[in-house]
Structure formats: C-alpha cells, structure tokens
Amino acid sequence: MKKNDEFEIDITDIGNEGEGIGKHEGMTLFVKGGLPGDRILAGATKLKKTYGYARLVKVLTPSPFRVTPLCPISEKCGGCQIQSLSYEKQLELKERKITENLIRIGGFSPEFVKEHMDPIVGMEIPFHYRNKAQYPIGTDKNGQPIAGFYAGRTHSIIPNTRCYLGAEENEEILNAVLSYMKENNIPAYDETTGKGLIRHVLIRKGFTTGELMVCLVINHKGYNVKSNTDVEIRKSKQKWLPDQKKLIEGLEKIGGMKSISVNINTENTNVILGKDTYTIWGEPAISDIIHVRDMQRDGYPFTGDALTFNISPLSFYQVNPLQTEKLYSLALEYAGLMGKESVWDLYCGIGTISLFMARKAKQVYGVEIVPQAIDDARENAKRNGITNAEFFVGKAEEVLPEFYEKTNSASDMLHPDVIVVDPPRKGCDEACLSTMLKMQPDRIVYVSCDSATLARDLKTLCEGGYQIKKIRGVDQFGHTVHVETVCLLSKLSVRL
Ligand code: SAH
Known about the structure:
Helix content: 25-40%
Number of domains: 3
Distance between the termini: 50 Å
CATH superfamily of the largest domain: Vaccinia Virus protein VP39
Structural class: alpha/beta
Bound molecules: S-adenosyl-L-homocysteine
Number of strands: 22
Largest sheet: 8 strands, mixed
Strand content: 25-35%
Radius of gyration: 25 Å
Strand order of the largest sheet: 6-21-22-20-19-16-17-18
C-alpha cells in the first residue's frame, strides 16, 4: 500500500478522537468520518510501519448504527465526535474500550474482566446534559459578532448558538449577548491582533435549582487598583463594559438568571479564563443539589440523601449532573461504608465525593492540588453541616507519603478502611500508588476518566496485593468518545 492508494475497508472501531478504525493488508488505518459498521472506500494519506491514516472517499455500505444527528453541524464542530452513531452503539463501544484496555494494558484475562464488569450506566436522554458551556466570541466576514464552537483542532469559530448537548437556555443567553454587542458596537476579541473586548461567554446552570450564571470573559486592561477612585469603580460594579446596563437588561429577564459577572483575561493565550472575576449583577455564585441514588434498583431512585454545592465561575464541577449522581452513588456503594470508617479521598476537587462519603463514615480526608477548590470544599462542608471532613492542599503523591512518614502510628488515617482516588487523565503518580499500598486500606475505589491509565494503575495495585471486585462504566459524555469508569478493589487476605 502506498500514499493515495484507494481501497475498500470495514470500519470496526473508533479511536481516541472519534475517528473510524479498520484494517487493510495488516495495517491499522484511522479514517475520520468512518463509523463502526461502515464499509467505505478510503484513500491512504499517511502511512507508517504498522498503521496509517486515510480519508473517507465514499461510504459504500452505511453502518446499521448510523443515525441522523440532531445537530446539523455535529460533524464539523469539535464539540462532539460521534453524534452520527446510535447512542446504544456508543455505549457498547465505550464498554468495549474499557474492556480492551484492561486486557491489553492491565494484563487481566478477558474472562476475568467479563466476570467482574457490570453493564455501563447510560443516560436516559443523551442530549442537553451539560451544565456548563464556554462559547468563543468572534466576528464574521461582515463584521458582525458571532458565538459558536471551534472546528475540530482549529480556532476558527463555527457560528452556532444551539448546542444539543448544552442547556436549552444557552441560546437565549447568547442571543442577548450578541444583540447587546451589535446594538452598542461592542467589538469581539481578535486573537491575532489582541484587540477587541469580548472573548468568551461562560454559562453554567444548576440543573436541580434552575439557577443560571453568565460570565463574560473580557480583554479589559483593568483599573489601577492603587487609586481609591478605581477601587470605588470596581466596588460600584458599574464600569467593566460600555453600556453595561443594556447587557444586564437583556440577561436579567431570562428565567433563572442568578449571577452575571465579568472575568478579566488580557493574555494572548488559549487559556479561557483569567484569574479575576467581578460580579456585575446578582450573586457571585449559583448553587446546585446532588442526590444520592440507589444503584441497585431499576431507574436508580433517590435515597433521600442530598448535598448542596456552591458553584462559582472558576470552580470545578462535574459537567453532567445527572450522571454524576450515578457515578458518585456507585463510588459510595463500592466504598461500603457503615458509619465507622476512615476514608481518604485523593484528587477531591471541591470535595463532592468526600462529602458524599463523610455522611456515611467516621472521618474523611480530602487531598487536592488547587487551593481554590479546597476553599470551596471547606465551604461546601460547612454548607451541608458536615464536620468530619478535613481537606489538604497539595499533590496526592506528596501529601499522602508525607502523612504516612510523619504521622504517629495511632492515627486511624494511616491505615484507613477506604481510599478513593479520582485522578485526571494521566492517572495516579507512582509515589501515590506505592503509599496507598503501604497504607493497606481494606478497599480502594478508583474513579477514572481514562481507562488506559486506569488499567495501568490497576495492574500496579493488583501486583501489590489487591484484587478487582467490580468494574462499571458510567457515560458522562454522550456523543463524545470519553467515558468514566468506577472500580472496586479489595485487599487480598493473604499478601503475595
Ligand atoms: N473528585 C472531584 C474532582 C475530580 S477531577 C470531582 O468529582 O469533582 C481531578 C482533580 O484532581 C482536579 O480537581 C485536579 O485539580 C486534581 N489534581 C490534579 N493533579 C493532582 C495531584 N497531583 N494531586 C492532587 N490533586 C490533583
């Protein structure tokens, strides 16, 4: 096979970016736009030794799993990757991805994985599930402001104010912002020149409370805080945007609006948010409620227990609140708490899992690298009347070993009953895993957003004397290739 050769190929899988995967003449080929079940005509574009890339020339026999996507631009937009694939098939592929990683990277046998894996928890309605959206603002050819999404891997904005994954209110909010910009000649930010004012619109919604937050990220040089008048200007919340009152008039009438703010970002960077946020109308934060669900019963009904969280523009909060309830409830079920246990929650963010656990345990310690998140965690504990959760700022791989070395042997927390980890995609650091093994908790609950690093870490934990009891996927991100996994491990009674 050489470049530009055309050949027929069956697409059997999807890759990490949602591209179709098939085999031809022993080579693995990645084809953007090909979906599992398709037979296509492909043209080789780039070939390596064992794998290569090809373009989709023509779909010869469409996959039986192809559906018409709700969103007319889903194939161009970088937000979703697999909306053209039926949701049932998406779930099947996600489960397969977890299984394959456990076998290939973790070294577990297919029979073992099958025996320990429960069916993936899907969404009832895989649309309008996201509680957070960040729309870039730009200018079209006619000089008019637009809001939309970046096309995959680029910074060109595809105008689109109706995203089928986001809250339905987003469209009305964006239209209000765009009207304000048009009517008052407010320029959008231009990445190439560094000029213009409005960069992004961040929207968050508390799905249970219905509360809405809008934060405009602006390229505003700020005020000189040394001068008293400028401090007064900041306090008066008046002067961040030209004709600010008009913007507020447009937004405040939208049902549920609770908080309008500006975030200052003057850097020439891809990072969306700057560090300073000022409320220009309403409250500085919105709130949301997460219910505990009974994962053993059909439809996962509420157990009656729930927690309230404060969400400010900058704080981390899971983006799919309904599935998050299922994910956390599963983690809680796996932890098997009866009220007397000591629990570590590593990579705890704003303490959501820690507080879920604290209700059912004697003592919980949370560890998180972002200081602001720990402030939120402490605040959230207070808000929910929880006094048995303590939080530490720092890297899990430093805080845990230090605690283990320096704390006197009488502490329950040295050999806790349960350790929960919920690391970012790169998984747990080795120093973190080895200290976990030294601490010898009865159970480890691993919540993962990347099943490849999960499989790697499970291998280490199993070699260190633990055994997998249960694994289950939870789909937090329908129409994208991402999937969450929860795994329960328990200590082998006889150490190897
Ligand atoms: N459990 C939380 C957060 C999960 S996201 C929730 O469900 O909301 C992973 C978290 O790990 C993030 O908050 C991130 O800031 C934090 N983090 C990343 N690297 C870390 C490290 N080395 N040590 C501790 N926390 C880390």
